[in-house]
Amino acid sequence: MPGTSFFSDMLQGITERGRKLLFAGSRTTETAAEVDLETLCEMLLSSRGEASGMAIASEILDRWSKLEGASVQQFLQMLSEKFGADTAKLDKAVDRYRAERSAATIIALHNAAEPRRQELLRRLNLAPNGTAKLVQMRQQLLSLRERSEEFRAVDADFAHLFGSWFNRGFLTLRPIDWSTPAHILEKIIKYEAVHEIAGWEELRRRLAPADRRCFAFFHPRLVDEPLVFVEVALTRTVPGAIKDVLDEDREQISADQATTAVFYSISNCQDGLRGISFGNFLIKQVVEDLRRDLPGLKNFVTLSPVPGFARWLEKALSSEADLLTAEDRKVLALLNEPGWADDDSRANEVERVLLPLAAHYFLIERAPEGRPVDPVARFHLGNGARLDKLNFLGDRSPKAMQQAHGLMVNYLYKLEDIEANHEALAQRGEVTASPAVKSLLARNGENRRAGKSEPVPRQFAQVMNAKIGGGRK
């Protein structure tokens, strides 16, 4: 976009002039380079001039981009140890608040409690390409986050700021089709995380036909870098297998013949934005746009993977709990036999045992905080979708067979029920499911629990209530 290019060039010019002024008093470039990163960060926080601030921010990010190995960890430790909250200032603010509980003391307490690195990150964001570099910085941080509490605290500051910077109001929904510039299409191939795109010809089959759609969210500070994208198939029926969607010999239809929109792949593109949710907004916006353009669409469903199922089943098999009978264990041993999925007799036996266990996995099992154990289920059920159908051997790719023994799921987005479904999960821990899915529990001797879940833990309810109160639409 010409306007964006002009603005970026202007910022770059201001930054370069500022860098020349910043070290104008240094006799050599080596002297300027000897200023360490901690000192530069302190200089940035104390800077008052726009040009000098952008210059310092650019210098810090340029040096950071050259760090490797242990130096990366040392930089992040420096952010933790040297740029946290001013504890002396915070203690005084707490004392003043206890003495006088007023709006002024609350504001002062809030300001004192904010770690200095939050303002540092805001100022780093002013540098040319600052947002993109900070996203990359958080990607490095995420690889270290679980090592110590200090890294988790730094990550909390990144997540807090990114939650504002990447607010839905700043995002732009753009259709992706075969006429989209090649440098963006290359990123769709690169970032596809659910069903690998083998090359340009396969990408063309997903984008060019009249019964295919793709949409992506973009941010103005990450030009031509998709944040998340969704691939959509327009069909006459709800598919139960990914082959029905991706088969190059499938029957193609015109868009106005379709009654169903199938969201068959949702891919987050930026690892540094993990945990900053865009997908829920994306699906709802795409549904609205498709309904407007194609009024004949009646059903909005997903064809989703179940990435945690095989891992959960392996734990269940190694457990002595009474969830599995001796006969169940004998049948599930077939999963270790080569070619079982291509043998109708063995596949039928596995299906008979596997689908009721899958129903238990979705409807009964919970993570410690009370959420569904499957990450894709957490996403769609948390958005208010209904668990509609379990599809045995819906995906026979090596990845799907390893992660879920081929299982796929349809989640149904029925707009008039989304709020009620979300509330059922958030307030009571109940997964909304179709009668067909609930009935599978009866096959496993769990009919008394069909459609019911464990009481929702208080911690989970508090988290979900906070999300609702935080502006969920």
Q: Biggest sheet, in brief?
A: 5 strands, mixed
Uncertain spans, ≥5 residues at pLDDT below 50? Answer: 25-31, 446-473
The CATH class of the largest domain is identified as Alpha Beta
CATH architecture label name of the largest domain: 3-Layer(aba) Sandwich
Tell me, briefly, the overall form: globular
| Measured distance between first and last alpha carbons | 31 Å
Counted by DSSP, the helix tally is 22
Number of domains: 3
Structural class per helix/strand content? alpha+beta
Q: Strand order of the main beta sheet, please? A: 1-2-3-4-5
Mean pLDDT: 87
- Helical proportion? 40-55%
The arrangement of helices and strands along the chain is: HHHHHHHHHHEHHEEHEHEEHHHHEHEHHH
Q: What Rg is obtained from the alpha carbons, in whole angstroms? A: 26 Å
Bin the strand percentage.
Answer: 5-15%
Number of separate strands: 8
CATH topology of the largest domain: Aminopeptidase
Identify the CATH homologous superfamily of the largest domain: Malonyl-CoA decarboxylase, catalytic domain
What would your notes on this structure say?
This protein is α+β, with helices and mostly antiparallel strands and 473 residues long. The chain has 3 domains: 2-165, Malonyl-CoA decarboxylase, oligemerization domain (Butyryl-CoA Dehydrogenase, subunit A, domain 3, Up-down Bundle); 169-302, Aminopeptidase (3-Layer(aba) Sandwich), CATH 3.40.630; 305-469, Aminopeptidase, CATH 3.40.630.150. The chain has 22 helices and 8 strands. The strands form 2 sheets. A 5-stranded mixed beta sheet has the order 1-2-3-4-5, covered by helices on one side. Strands 6-8-7 form a 3-stranded antiparallel beta sheet. Helix 14 links the parallel strand 4 (260-268) and strand 5. Helix 1 crosses helix 4 (50-65). The longest helix is centred in the N-terminal third of the chain and has 21 residues, at 2-22. The protein is globular. It starts with a helix and ends with a helix. Mean pLDDT is 87; it is low at 25-31 and 446-473.
